Amino acid sequence: MADTKVSDGDVLVIGGGISGLTTAVEAAEVGCRVILVEKEPSLGGRVARNNKYYTKLCPPSCGLEINFKRIKKNPNIQCLTLSEVEAISGGEGNYEVTIRINPRYVNENCTACGKCAEVCVTEIPNEFNLGMDKIRAAYLPHPMAFPMRYVIAPEIIGTEEVKKCLDACKYNAIDLDMKQETVKVKVGAVVVATGWNPYDAAKIDNLGFGKCRNVITNVMMERLASPSGPTKGRIVRPSDGKEVKTVIFAQCAGSRDENHLAYCSGVCCLASLKQATYVREQYPDAKATIFYIDVRALGNYEDFYTKVAGDENISLIKGKVARVEEDPTTADVVVEAEDTLTGDKIKARADMLVLATGMVPSAPGGNIAVTYDEFGFVVSDPSIRGIYGVGCARRPTGVAQSVQDATGAALKAMQSMVRR
Ligand SMILES: Cc1cc2nc3c(=O)[nH]c(=O)nc-3n(C[C@H](O)[C@H](O)[C@H](O)COP(=O)(O)OP(=O)(O)OC[C@H]3O[C@@H](n4cnc5c(N)ncnc54)[C@H](O)[C@@H]3O)c2cc1C
Ligand code: SF4
Ligand code: SF4
User: What is the pLDDT of residue 418?
Assistant: First the structure.
């Protein structure tokens, strides 16, 4: 039955992406009691949606599974999924936090056997795959989900169908009495690890998203290339499922543009270089062209850039894409740009265009007393002690930097406990 028991903690971490997970395990492993609050049904954040990490090109399970194991065996961490912070009051060492917990309708008995999904016919958009396909309304968020537990979508609650799911479950794991709950807990410090959302490409008028069928975004490309994605990892055109032999990447799609995001999103040059390798690996004769303003391979990534740029089937052209149209007969994408080094006007045609859209900070909600910059990133403010931002909630950044940041945030949170 419902009524989640949540005890007071030392540190509240809001957001269960790589930054929040790392903060939680680092703090818990030195004895702090951590409450980790994640709004989605599983942990891992945006990293879980990636096909591979640059620069080693290993799958996201590499970094995430080790953290999931550490969480599993650490009794100091209370992990609340489908949950959000409603309000925080008090100050360093003594915060009172109100948390809203949404019902999953599935309890800890779930073995992820999948029998409930077999009898469920209603389909809902698959949010994990950015709505590019559908899933049954009794679902596992994704194959690597932690916790590895199904969810019953609210869409079928109260229907005959959910009764079939209940009958199919041999483990007494479906609990239709679960209700939305609100709990109040006390903590000494708060870490905001709410990460980022992709910029809405439909707002960029000239780049064809939503108008040309074969214009996608970089986050969609990660899902297309992933074995757990909507095409089981085949990179094909949305319009006709055709294999892609020519792909164009348009960098700074919205970023470094006063009309959209005035800042550099930091990771999208490396993400496009990485995605060009996805295409080349899958189709050995495919060609990729990257239109860029500058290539920013921040961190120790110069070697990766040099290696990818050295592939004779990958061209990098310094020039911003100005216009995108669809050829109505072939559904090819026709891109106009200017090569800023030669001054030549370029008209290029491709099977698919990938927009390197940037990162928008995701707000924690709950009227949290932190300072934000003009774009909504959490700022380190020496006048505020006890609440700390980490990872992409603080600035656009990659995984390695987020992990380092998280270790620092765990230390700061512990210092708040000492000052208690
Ligand atoms: C196309 C693309 C490819 C990339 N590829 C790579 C790569 O190969 N290698 C690399 O190093 N980096 C890569 N990155 C960057 C990487 O995704 C980020 O570094 C990483 O996601 C940062 O993790 P985070 O935990 O700070 O944020 P997130 O991953 O966004 O996690 C934040 C978490 O907080 C949760 N949350 C948000 N709001 C709330 C709330 N109000 N309450 C509770 N929970 C909340 C979210 O659901 C999420 O689980 C890529 C980025 C892009 C755009
Ligand atoms: S809820 Fe029951 S039927 Fe569904 S996956 Fe879990 S254990 Fe299996
Ligand atoms: S990382 Fe590259 S593509 Fe992304 S905003 Fe910065 S310069 Fe543009």
Answer: 87
